[in-house]
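Chapter review: from sequence to fold.
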Amino acid sequence: MTVKCLLMIRRKEGMSYEEFSEYWRDVHAPLAREHGDVLGVLRYVQVRPLRHPQAVALAGVRGTPIADFDGIAEVWWDSLDMDDPSESVMEIVAGILDDERRFIDLEHSLIWFGVETVEIGHPSV
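The token string follows.
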């Protein structure tokens, strides 16, 4: 079983998309890589928006609006079960959240957890 956390991210007010994207890629991603093993992260993926005409057309055919997010982060774990996480793990989580506050509008972003079931293709990890 793979547990996924999807974070639909909006950048902080006053920050350009380029500033947001650069910070997310060059500052936040290395922080995630540094602590991923301790947090049991199997995979961390940053997804940036695609403003392609065919994507817009596909959304129109479906009658579905295109979500207005600056990016989506995917975090994958084997399980969310953590038996009494250590103080150092909680400090890492707090540090990552502090960093997110520098570039993410947390109040207007969304978080969603789910369990992956592969119907077509190879398993995720």
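Two observations follow directly from the output. Helices lie at 17-35, 53-62, 87-103. The chain has a mean pLDDT of 89.
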